[in-house]
Design a protein that fits this description.
Helix content is about 40%, strand content about 10%. By secondary structure, it is α+β, with helices and mostly antiparallel strands. A four-stranded antiparallel sheet has the order 6-7-8-9. The protein has a three-stranded antiparallel sheet with strand order 3-4-5. Strands 1-2 form a two-stranded antiparallel sheet. The two termini are about 25 Å apart. The structure holds alpha-D-glucopyranose. Keywords: Carbohydrate metabolism, Glycosidase, Hydrolase.
Length: about 650
């Protein structure tokens, strides 16, 4: 049986979805079943009970890491002497490296007989974070901080006092990162979003966010600490198949959560034991109920990076992981009404997770989508059952890169072209295909666009171009080679030319410019957190340092990243590692910014590690692909009518 099908069937059989429908309704896809009138809270607890049935285990049992030992390659570690309590359920999970998708999903998710014992409430301490080995950073003064012991490189030209300062900031950052680690069954599985001991309200910043964990995970990978990333990948995979509904509506099975929390709860019927419970949020509790489209894409990107950095390919080869990749792809590649190869999403479906006028085809999602497609193409095992999916993936890659490179790109030449566009063209060979009215060119752009440089616009819809500069989308388009090499260099040229606007006192503005006045009212819904030059509306986010560094190193221009890091180093630690900064020049700590925000810490660390050992960046980027280049040039040279047959011509 095809693995995806097997998983689907298992899901339909194994997970009765609880919802407020007819008690006897149950459809073939397992979408609806069970009782009416079950509220959300019950629904969640019943699901978690399925997953983490637990019992006490004699306290002298020795503990073993959950995924340890599945292959000879993995550099897992034993936590044997750490704690008395142990998890049977976790042990079962670790032993999975073969079998069918059905076997694996079953064992991962629904074995009623297995029991977990977690930390007894009678005082066994939480794991000591220091037990998770993260070496203190090497002294910069002794030649750098390369994870492989290589000397510092990449154009950092610090004097010795700066070096000492920078190294103590790194020490602090590592300590903060370690302290933000979250444990499940006593094994590290992620990092909490913010860890400010003085915070009175944490909202959901006490959760592990998928997107926030990416820089943490990469920092650990670059440091040779693979367990936490492996655990994160496999446990979030479990959550992918979780029952998820909002007001009786269920999104697609491949969806990954935005975040999850590990709760330690008393074990039913046992006063002396507790169980650890993973409690995911797929957007059903998130502010604005936003869909985390980026989570699954980031998950694929991290999975690839894990394999590249650790050399352990056994994780990506697991049947359940292969199924997980395919489920994400199926969700993203599903046919819809759309005319464009870009992924159509609702507002707030990525790092900007609230209303900011980025619904439709925002660049950030397209860059992550492209990167995830490339990663999936690399990691999916060739098998008959995946042939159609693989073909659809390849077709989409070509169409997507063509579309973005052609239609999202602007520079002075293209702006001039748009300025003189004819409109209302009905024909196959219209120049102004999307019927853009030249009056849409905003006045700020006339000054912003340098004569040398360019960028990919934020969004493209019929008769609408969002000309705002979105940093993550542009930087990740460089990292993934969604942008051509020339375009990539031009983006960095623009960043250099517009340093005062995009960086000023703290790297890096999430987008430029901010929405103001009436436009702010209409587009954000008068969101008081997204006021001009704050938060997602032109605020500055230190976490973006790591993507900037990856992009700069890929293009062999690390000095741009070094300059940004030097700036950040002046303030990040003093300011307590804020989530974001406010004002046009990033002079204030964000009004509602969390302090000790983990991805600010991790973003900084990744940037430092990469600058010290630029060769490690190759594990995070994808190079231009000759198959795509050929396909791309075919498309450009074919006329619009002939283009209809291009897939057949070049991709079979
Ligand atoms: C904010 C950010 C989001 C991030 C979350 C946790 O909601 O917009 O991108 O994942 O905080 O840090």
């Amino acid at each position: 049986m095809a693995t995806v099908e097997a998983a689907r069937q298992l899901l339909s059989g194994g997970f009765g979805r609880l919802g407020c429908f007819d008690p006897f309704l149950s459809n073939v896809n397992g979408v609806i079943s069970v009782k009416s009138g079950v509220n959300n809270a019950r629904k969640r607890s019943s699901v978690r009970a399925q997953v983490h049935k637990s019992s006490r285990v004699p306290h002298d049992r020795r503990r073993v890491g959950p995924f340890q030992g599945t292959s000879g390659v993995f550099h897992g570690k034993s936590y044997g002497n750490r704690l008395d309590s142990m998890s049977y359920n976790c042990q079962r999970v670790e032993s999975l490296n073969g079998g069918t998708a059905e076997d694996q999903r079953r064992a991962l998710l629904v074995d009623e007989s297995d029991k977990v014992t977690s930390i007894p409430p009678n005082g066994t301490p939480k794991p000591d974070v220091n037990e998770f080995k993260v070496d203190p950073p090497l002294d910069q003064g002794n030649g750098g901080f390369g994870s492989n012991g290589k000397p510092a490189a990449a154009g950092i030209n610090l004097d010795s006092s700066q070096k000492i300062k920078s190294s103590s900031i790194e020490d602090e950052a590592w300590t903060l990162l370690k302290n933000s680690m979250v444990y499940y069954c006593n094994n590290p599985i992620g990092t909490i979003a913010a860890n400010d001991p003085s915070a009175t309200s944490t909202l959901n910043y006490d959760q592990v966010f998928i997107r926030d964990f990416i820089p943490s995970g990469i920092a650990f990978l670059l440091k040779g600490e693979y367990d936490i990333v492996r655990n994160f990948i496999l446990h979030t995979l479990q959550l992918q198949s979780w029952e998820k509904t909002m007001d009786c509506y269920s999104p697609g099975q491949g969806l990954m959560p935005a975040s999850f929390k590990v709760r330690t709860v008393p074990l039913e019927g046992d006063d002396y034991a507790t169980e650890d419970v993973l409690d995911p949020d797929f957007g059903e509790a998130a502010i604005g109920r936003v869909a985390p489209v980026d989570s699954g894409l980031w998950w694929i990107i991290l999975l690839r990076a894990y394999g590249k950095c650790s050399g352990d390919l056994s994780v990506q080869e697991r049947v359940d992981v292969q199924t997980g990749i395919k489920m994400i792809l199926k969700l993203c590649l599903a046919d819809g009404f759309d005319m464009f190869p870009t992924l159509l999403v609702t507002d707030g479906s990525c790092m900007i997770d609230r209303r900011m006028g980025i619904h439709g085809h925002p660049l950030e999602i397209q860059a992550l989508f492209y990167s995830a497609l490339l990663g999936a193409r690399e990691m999916l095992a060739p098998e008959d059952a995946s042939a159609d999916l693989m073909q659809a993936l390849k077709n989409r890659l070509v169409a997507l890169s063509f579309h973005i490179r052609e239609y999202y790109w602007i520079d002075m030449r293209k702006l001039n072209e748009i300025y003189r566009y004819k409109t209302e063209e009905y024909s196959y060979d219209a120049v102004n295909k999307f019927n853009i009215y030249p009056d849409q060119i905003p006045s700020w752009l006339v000054d912003f666009m340098p004569s040398k440089g360019g960028y990919l616009i934020g969004n493209l819809q019929p008769a609408h171009m969002d000309f705002r500069f979105f940093s993550l989308g542009n930087l990740w388009s460089i990292a993934s080679s969604l942008a051509t090499l020339d375009q990539s260099h031009a983006i960095l040229d623009l960043i250099e030319a517009k340093w005062e606007e995009l960086v000023a006192d703290m790297p890096f503005k999430i987008c430029y410019p901010a929405l103001e006045g009436r436009e702010w009212q209409i587009i954000t819904g008068s969101d008081p957190k997204n006021t001009p030059w704050s938060y997602h509306n032109g605020g500055s986010w230190p976490t973006l340092l790591w993507q900037l560094t990856v992009a700069c190193i890929k293009l062999n221009r690390p000095e741009i990243a070094s300059k940004a890091i030097e700036l950040a180093e002046k303030r990040l630690s003093l300011d307590k590692w804020p989530e974001y900064y406010d004002t046009k020049r990033a002079r204030f700590i964000g009004k509602q910014a969390q302090l000790y925000q983990t991805w600010s810490v991790a973003g900084y660390l990744v940037a430092k590690l990469l600058l010290a050992d630029p060769s490690a960046a190759k594990n995070l980027v994808t190079e231009e692909d000759s198959e795509l280049v050929n396909a791309f040039s075919c498309m450009i040279s074919s006329n619009p009518r002939r283009k209809r047959g291009w897939k057949k011509q070049i991709l079979v």
